[in-house]
């Protein structure tokens, strides 16, 4: 199956969380530019991309959406 892009993490921490979630769910993945993006963080052209098999894309999207719902912005709380 061809691999298609799932997401572009904005930090190494986010990448680690996403790959851990995929591994724990048994979804095969590949990270493009994994090490290059850490050399110059913040440059959009060097962002890493998480790729998944086309047959797993929908399941991976659902897992990722649940992860995003679980993350709360607590910066405004005292």
Structural summary, described in words:
The chain is globular, with a radius of gyration of 13 Å. It starts with a strand and ends in an 8-residue tail after the last helix. The chain has helices at residues 12-24, 36-39, 57-70; strands at 3-7, 29-32, 49-53. It has 78 residues and is an alpha+beta fold. Strands 1-3-2 form a 3-stranded antiparallel beta sheet, with helices on one face. The longest helix is centred in the C-terminal third of the chain and has 14 residues, at 57-70. It has one domain: Alpha-Beta Plaits (2-Layer Sandwich).
Key phrases:
Alpha-Beta Plaits, alpha+beta, 3 strands
Structural class: alpha+beta
Q: Determine the mean pLDDT.
A: 82
Strand order of the largest sheet: 1-3-2
Listing every helix as H and every strand as E from the N terminus to the C terminus, the arrangement reads EHEHEH
CATH class: Alpha Beta
Cα Rg: 13 Å
Q: What is the level-2 CATH architecture name?
A: 2-Layer Sandwich
Largest sheet properties: 3 strands, antiparallel
Counting H and I runs of at least 4 residues, what is the number of helices?
Answer: 3
The helix content, as a percent range, equals 25-40%
Overall body shape: globular
Number of domains: 1
How far is it from the N-terminal to the C-terminal residue, by CA?
49 Å
CATH topology category name: Alpha-Beta Plaits
- Poorly predicted regions: none
Provide the β-strand percentage band: 15-25%
In total, how many beta strands? 3
């Amino acid at each position: 199956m061809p691999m298609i892009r799932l997401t572009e993490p904005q930090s190494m921490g986010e990448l680690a969380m996403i790959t851990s979630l995929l591994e724990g769910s048994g979804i095969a993945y590949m990270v493009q530019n994994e090490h290059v993006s850490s050399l110059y963080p913040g440059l959009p052209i060097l962002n890493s991309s998480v790729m998944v098999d086309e047959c797993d894309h929908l399941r991976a999207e659902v897992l990722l959406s649940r992860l995003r719902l679980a993350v709360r912005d607590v910066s405004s709380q005292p």
